[in-house]
Amino acid sequence: MASDAGLTGIDCEVVDRVIDVGKNKFRILEQGQGPAVLFAHGFPDTADTWRSQMNALAEEGYRAVALDMRGFGASYSPSEVEQYTSPYIVGDLVGVLDALEIPGCTLVGHDWGADHAQKAMLMRPDRFEALVSVSIPYAPRGEMSLNESLRIRGLGDRYYALAFDKPDAGRQFLPAEKTIASVLYWLSASPPPEQRWDPIDPAKHMLRPAPVAAPDWVDPDYVHRTIAWMHRDRIMV
User: Fold this and answer.
1) Left if phi > 0, otherwise alpha if psi is -120 to 50, otherwise beta: which for 28?
2) pLDDT by residue (tens digit) across 196-210?
3) What CA–CA distance (Å, rounded) separates 224 from 231?
4) Which of 54, 99, 100, 208 gives a 20 to 30 Å CA spacing to 185?
5) Roughly what angle, to the nearest 10 degrees, separates helices 86-99 and 112-123?
């Protein structure tokens, strides 16, 4: 992608708005002009997690767009769990491009968003030209589901994500004032290595009480925004 440096301060301002994607509403952030880059966030998060990266790209002559994914922030949040599969979410990503009249873009995904970004590249290579996958390496489809493989290996009661399959599992992320601090702290390099989150050790789970309100490396405005959005997220409760 060729960059076009030299944008003015006005061109680099972040635009925060809600758009129509088909019949549904999605909140997006936009910044800059030029070749498009679309950002898909992880769990539990919102488009706000990408503000630093968006600013850097905008200053280099790109059009950065981030969305609150389906079920998060101010975006469409259906109550049926069946509507959170990849065909729906890939459709959301394509729908954002259509609504913004963007023919194609580079796709950047983190965590849960990276998993769906990978599937978007496979399903719609006509719209997504390149992929940056953060935290989640690509793994081709196997002969059995990952969850079933983990259970066979004896990790059914230990692997953190399987606990999210239980009814009302989202309630463990409330109150957000405490759990956001826990996630930011334990999943980072802030704690000593032997105390950090371990996905297969329930004693080192991500929602342990954190010793700080927020790590010193995190932007306080980001923490406040994320907590506020979690209080509004219907999927969380």
Assistant:
1) beta
2) 999 999 999 999 999
3) 11
4) 54
5) 80
Give this prediction's pTM: 0.89
Q: Which of 69, 70, 138, 130 is nearest to 105 (CA)?
A: 130
Would you say 118 and 133 are in contact if contact means Cβ atoms under 8 Å apart?
Answer: yes
pLDDT at residue 91 tops 80: yes
Asked whether the predicted pLDDT for residue 3 surpasses 50, the reply is no
Look up residue 7 and give its two tokens: 């944008």
